[in-house]
Amino acid sequence: MDFKIQLTGLNELLSIIYGNELRLSELLRELGFEESQIEQVRDKHLESVVSQYLEVIHKRLTNDAGKDSYYQILSRRYGLDGEAPEQLSTIADKQNHSPEYLRQLFEEIIQRCRSKTWQVELKKNLKFIVVAEFGKMNERPSREHVAGKLGRLENLRGAADVARLDYEAKRTEILKQIQAELDALDSEYKPILESAEENIAALENEIKTDVLLHGESVTAGSYRATYSQGRISWDNDGLSKYADTHPEVIKFRKQGQPIVSLRIVNKD
Questions:
Q1: Domain end residue (candidates: 140, 161, 179)
Q2: Which one of 53, 148, 180, 268 is least enclosed by Cβ atoms within 10 Å?
Q3: Cut 0.85: pTM above it
């Protein structure tokens, strides 16, 4: 088994799962490990971490799929077993599958691995693995080291709070300055807009009445007043009783009142 092949395959898989060419070291950085701690992983714990992490992926994929073959396909494609990776066509031939079937199966495997649940779980497990490795070697940060970071955090949060309060105070002051202008604008335009809406409603009502009297649709400019005959409906109970023997069922016919609607029409 070649560990370099195994690590390269894992990094390639992580890039596919998380995107952005993500490698194991970048993932550790995202998980909150310092550069010195990441260097320790590289120097002392890398093979153990990779082995345990691949076992997590193996178990998770097998449990999800209910079969070990999914991980074996992933392992052979990326060389997670430390052997040279193989193309899907080669894997398909060895497993007596058609290339198209294996391609679809591989896409399903990758989709499982890229799910949000998988991404969260894999990160969490990696963090536990590395923390446990440091614990085995008693390579824990000192209380003073953690306390120093807590002090920095307090300072950062304090500075952020000051900036936030300053922002809110200045924002409030600006709003006060323009609020009077906004109120004046509302006072100026409110009666104008209300009057316009009243005039529009009154004219629309007049147009509808005119079209009812006119008896057909009218188009002018970008508007069309559509005249529609009243909806015709039938007394179904009466129709079912008389339709077969009484052709004069027309007496059960009911017609509603005509209506007019207004709409904007496209005009070339």
A1: 140
A2: 268
A3: no
Which contiguous run of DSSP H or E holds residue 94? helix 88-94
Give yes or no: residues 172 and 124 share one domain: no
Residue type, 8: T
pLDDT tens per residue, the chain (268 residues)?
A: 899 999 999 999 999 999 878 899 999 999 899 999 999 999 989 999 999 999 999 999 888 777 888 999 999 999 999 999 999 999 999 989 999 999 999 999 999 889 999 999 999 999 999 988 888 888 788 889 888 988 888 899 899 999 999 999 999 988 888 988 888 999 999 999 999 999 999 999 999 899 888 888 999 988 889 888 877 676 667 766 666 777 676 666 666 666 656 566 665 5
Q: How many CB atoms lie within 10 A of CB 97?
A: 17
For residues 71 and 74, give the distance between their C-alpha atoms in angstroms, rounded to a whole number: 5
What lies within 8 Å, CB to CB, of 211 at 6+ separation is 217, 218, 225, 227, 260
**Element (DSSP H or E) covering residue 218:** strand 218-220
Within 8 A by CB and 6+ apart from 238, the residues are 249, 252
CA dihedral for 247, 253, 258, 263, sign (positive or negative): negative
> Angle CA(14)–CA(15)–CA(19) in degrees, nearest 5?
120
88 close to 75: Cβ distance less than 8 angstroms: no
Task: Tell me: do 99 and 204 sit in the same domain.
Answer: no
> What domain range includes position 250?
215-264
Q: Rounded to an integer, what distance in angstroms lies between the CA atom of residue 161 and that of residue 152?
A: 14
C-alpha to C-alpha distance for 123 and 113, rounded to whole angstroms: 12
Question: Rounded CA gap, 54 and 71, in Å?
Answer: 10
